[in-house]
Amino acid sequence: xxxxxxxxxxxxASGTTEVADALAVLPGQRAQSPGGFEPCPGGFDAVWxxxxxxxxxxxxxxxxxxxxxxxxxxGSALAAGLALRALGHRVRVSFGDDPQIIPESLSxxxxxxxxxxxxxxxxxxxxxxxxxxxxEGRLGLLHQKAFAARTLVVxxxxxxxxxxxxxxxxxxxxxxxxxxxxxxxxxxGVRLDQELATCLYTGVATDTGSFKYAATTPQTHELAGxxxxxxxxxxxxxxxxxxxxxxGYLKVLAAALDRAVYEPEAVDGRGLVWTWVPYxxxxxxxxxxEEIEGLIDILRxxxxxxxxxxxxxxxxxxxxxxxxxxxxxxxxxxxxxxGGGGHVYAAGFSVREDVPSTVARxxxxxx
Length: 367
Ligand code: MN
Fold this sequence. Notes:
The protein is an alpha/beta fold and 367 residues long. It has 14 helices and eleven strands. The chain has helices at 18-23, 44-57, 71-86, 143-148, 177-188, 194-207, 218-228, 234-242, 247-258, 266-269, 279-284, 295-299, 331-337, 355-365, and strands spanning 60-65, 90-95, 127-131, 151-156, 167-170, 261-263, 272-277, 307-313, 319-325, 341-342, 346-351. The structure holds manganese (II) ion. The site of manganese (II) ion has 7 residues, from loops.
């Protein structure tokens, strides 16, 4: 169960590699256009029209989201699936993991009967709509099938999206892919009901950190208002998304915080806070690595430190580092020195070394 507050804006894509996390759009960076990439030459309207024509022609439609789906990915795909099914289309929802794991925190999402294993997606689908997939790699096991489709439509909001597929509806100014799905439903003439609203609210709330992040606009609240007007229990959705965990999680968290180190001299005197989570802790308390994705968002709270680092140990000994800066330091550059990458404010890496030497390397990479 993913139990953490939906971390650093859409920088959290729970359970993904840390680098992929970091490549998601961060709050305050929405206005940036991806490097050299023009999302929609000629404007979105023309693309929407082509997409709607393809949907109208399709006998069956495959709706896929990124691997290790979060609330925005799964909520977007399921909302689109429910709407297209209501319009009489044969639909499948899938994502390229094997096994496919739906986080306990998203178990309430309606429409999950539409989900099929990646193996059940045809080798050459007619029409594939992919949601919240920031790069080809995030298609996982469905990469080949998606590209074999007669038409591949990419619906996404990550500024880092390099642009792929037949039609691209990529809007980095959208705080969540679910916002673009709302537009899809509007253009399809589908009325919002509680099931659709539950999926879309989950997507928008997840990627805005419950409407906290800078990407949240008056339009985001206007959408939330329309979703609440269907009568959904947003209080229960929020509790499930953010305020529910196992007791074991509290014990892992407590141990990680107890292990935290504050180094005031690090980062040129700007301060570093770091901790690590041994795999044994997760095993002892039956906690999944996905459940602790948001630990970095607790560790980055101290005002004393510019940079926060969490190291998570995999069963094979690999350490996956996740770090955040408050803006004065480029952690992506530091992570690159350890073979990782990401964003200026959020980045990650993966190494096969022990904890002290990994922290030492990270510390010196920060300068
Ligand atoms: Mn998203």
